[in-house]
Design goal:
Helices cover 12% and strands 24% of the residues. It has one helix spanning 2-19, and strands at residues 44-48, 57-60, 81-85, 93-99, 103-109, 114-115, 141-145.
């Protein structure tokens, strides 16, 4: 009887693991583990207009109220992948906004996280413009923050 109980428990855990949702199915939570690009902290937020850190890119050390200009290119409503390489400590996380001047819906990118595909990541439902929209090609501004 004990062997049957152990076998059923093992079978139940196996089935639960097989049907459990993956981390990428949860839009409000970053889907890629820390350090997946193996980049050291350098104090910058990085954005690329392609998936998996490809295509045109931009980086910022400070807040930016309008992603229209960054080293001669516009990244406004173009970012498809992001990485927060900020330094640990105060203002280590980054709030990302749907509209310029830190307006509209937001979501947060924790320190050290890299997101290779923003398609399944969404702005929070907070009653502001852009709520529930995908973050892919929809970020217009960002601000460093103390916590997500």
């Amino acid at each position: 009887m004990k062997k049957i109980s152990i076998a059923l428990t093992a079978l139940t855990l196996t089935v639960m693991a097989a049907v459990a949702p993956s981390a990428s199915a949860q839009p409000a939570q970053p889907s890629v583990a820390k350090g997946s690009v193996a980049a050291a902290a350098d104090g910058y937020l990085y954005a690329w207009d392609g998936f998996a850190a490809s295509g045109a890119s931009c980086r910022w050390q400070a807040n930016d109220a309008d992603w229209s200009t960054c080293s001669g290119i516009s990244m406004r409503n173009r970012a498809s992948s992001l990485q927060n390489r900020g330094y640990a400590g105060a203002y280590e996380d980054v709030d990302l906004f749907y509209s310029p001047s830190w307006q509209g819906a937001r979501n947060c990118l924790p320190n050290g996280y890299y997101l290779d595909n923003l398609t399944g990541i969404y702005f929070l439902w907070d009653g502001k413009a852009g709520q529930g929209q995908t973050m892919n090609n929809n970020i217009a501004s960002h601000r460093w923050s103390n916590n997500c």
